[in-house]
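Researcher: Can you fold this with adenosine-5-diphosphoribose in place?
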Amino acid sequence: MRALVARAARVPPRVEEVILPAPGPDEVRVAIRAAGICHSDLSMVNGTLAPPYPLVLGHEAAGVVRTVGDRVDRVRAGDHVVLNWAPPCRRCWHCRHGEPWLCAATGAPGTPRGTSAADGAPLHVTLGLGALAEEVVVAGNAVIPVPADLPSELAALLGCAVLTGVGAVRRTAGVAPGDAVAVIGLGGVGLSTVAAARAAGADPVIAVDLAEAKRGLATAAGATDFLVSDETSTRSVRALTGGRGVDHAFECVGRAATIRLAWRATRRGGQVLVVGMGAKDDVLELGALDIFHSARVLRSSVYGSSDPDRDLPELARAASDGSLDLTTLITDRINLDEAPEALHRMARGEGARSVVLFEETGEPARGRVHSAPA
Ligand code: APR
Ligand code: ZN
C-alpha cells in the first residue's frame, strides 16, 4: 500500500510503498477513504516541529474498518470510522480527572506501530495514525464509529480541524450569545472556529488573516467582519468592539507574533485561546505590568478540550443533518500523489482544507476534482 512519508526535516515528503503489520489483538486495520492535510503535517516537515523520521504523515482521516483484533469490541469490519489522534488511556491522572485531551499516554508526534518501508526499515507514524495512506493499522481505541451516510471528506475533518475549532469555542472558551470574538488564522482550524463561534451566537465574529483571499471563506463560515492582519489590526478590532477589544481571541496560526496580536485584541478581563501549535523556540514576551493590569487569561486549547469518544459522534450527527455546514472548509479535493503540492499551497497560505480522496478499493482517486474557493 502507498503512504506519504517524510524522510527528514525540510526534505519534501514523497509517496512511498509501505508495509503494514497484521493488526494485533488490540488493533484495527482501516481502509482510508479521505484524509485532510493539516498545518501540523506541514509543521512536521518544515522544521517547526521535530518529530522522529522517517515518518508517515497524516492524522485527520476517515475510512472503513477492514480487520478487527480479538480484544476490540467497539467496531466491526465494515463500520465507518473517524480516526482519533489522541485516544485517551482512561487510567492516567488527567483521564481520571476529566481531562482526557491531556492524557499522559498520547501526543507523541511519531510512534512506531510496526509499519515499515518497502526495504523493511521501520517507519514512525504521525500520532499513532500515519493517515495520509491507503490503509492504517491503529489502536482499537483510536477509531470512532460514525454514520455510513456521512460523506467521508466531511468525516475526515471532524478528526482534527473541526473537533479542535468547535471544541475551542464550546469547551475551552465557553463562548456565550452576544460575546465578541476574534479568530486569527483562517485555515481549516480557524474557519471551524469561526463557524462554531457564529453558531454559539457570538457577535461580532472578527476574522483576521494575512491573506485577503481568505475574505470569502471567512464570510461563508459566518464571520461578521474580515481584517487583513497588519500593524493596525489591534486598533481595527477595538473599533469594532466599542474600544474595548473582544471577549475571546482565538489564535489559530501557531506563532508568538499572532498570540501577541490575540492578546492585544482582547479586552481587559477577556481570554486568549492559543489553538495553533507553534515552535518551541518562538518566544512570546509579555510585560509584567501588562499581565497584571489587563487581567487577561491566556489559555491553550489542546484538541478543543474534547473527549473525542463523547464529542465526535455529536459533531457527526450535526454534520449529517446539515446543522453544522463543513462543506465550505474544503477547497481542494486531490489524490495522494498531489499531497506534496497541497503542502506547498498551505505554506503559501492558499485555500483552506485539501482533502485526499481514496477510492473504495483503497486505490487513490484518479484525476483531480478541483473546486474553487467560495
Ligand atoms: N496573521 C494572520 N494570519 C496568519 C498569519 C499572521 N501573521 N500567518 C499565517 N496566517 C494564516 C494563513 O494565511 C492561513 O490562512 O493562518 C492560516 C493557517 O491556516 P492553515 O495553514 O490551513 O493551518 P490549520 O491547519 O488551520 O492549522 C492552524 O492549528 O492545529 C494547529 O498546527 C496547526 O498551528 C496550526 C494551526
Ligand atoms: Zn491536525
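Model: Folded with adenosine-5-diphosphoribose in place. The chain has two domains: 2-159+305-372, 164-303.
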